[in-house]
Write a structure and sequence with these properties.
By secondary structure, this protein is mostly beta strands. 0% of the residues lie in helices and 55% in strands.
Length: 187
């Protein structure tokens, strides 16, 4: 049985084997059969993570909003990360200002993720999964998109705050509970 243990800042990528009974693939641990000399090489790649800020936004059907996506490279080599988005509602699309994103060693790089909805995008709350791929390594993070109805008001309880939106201003505002603030809404 072969087990690959990466150093800090790296993640196991794949085994490359040669010889009868060797193993090539991504399983870790992996099993080999020693009937003759074999060569096994563990391949590692820089570890990385993804994050978004803000983690949620609110739009009207036919509108768009953005978030900043940050990739953190913990490895000692530059990293090229290809980005994708899934879980988009009907009629919505996602675009990245830079894709793929090149991240220097032990550093971060950011780009803008813009989600655009169509007039027929249904109202609701959607968890959009952002995936970053570097070779066979993948990382994900989740971005919440809330689509509110035209002419309507949406109130969602989420953790320690709530969201309210009015189409009169075509935006939404996040309010912390128990802050003692008063909010006025002109119509």
């Amino acid at each position: 049985t072969l087990t690959a243990n990466p150093n800090t800042g790296y993640a196991f990528n794949r085994w490359i084997g040669s010889g009868t009974g060797s193993y090539s693939g991504t399983a870790n641990p992996a099993t080999v059969t020693m009937n003759a000399p074999i060569t096994q090489t563990a391949n590692f790649a820089p570890a990385f993570s993804l994050s978004v800020n803000p983690t949620r936004t609110t739009v009207l059907p036919g509108g768009s909003d953005w978030t900043t996506l940050t990739v953190s490279n913990m490895g000692s080599n530059p990293l090229t990360v290809t980005l994708s988005a899934s879980g988009l509602p009907q009629g919505a699309s996602a675009s990245f200002s830079t894709n793929p994103l090149t991240v220097p060693p032990r550093s971060q790089a950011s780009c803008t993720l813009t989600v655009t909805t169509s007039a027929d995008t249904p109202a609701g709350s959607y968890a959009i999964t952002i995936t970053g791929s570097a070779g066979t390594l993948e990382r994900t993070t989740v971005y919440s998109l809330i689509v509110i109805e035209q002419g309507g008001v949406l109130v969602l309880l989420q953790g320690q705050d709530f969201c309210f939106g009015f189409t009169a201003c075509q935006s939404a505002q996040w309010v912390d509970q128990n802050t003692g603030q008063t909010y006025a809404f002109p119509f």
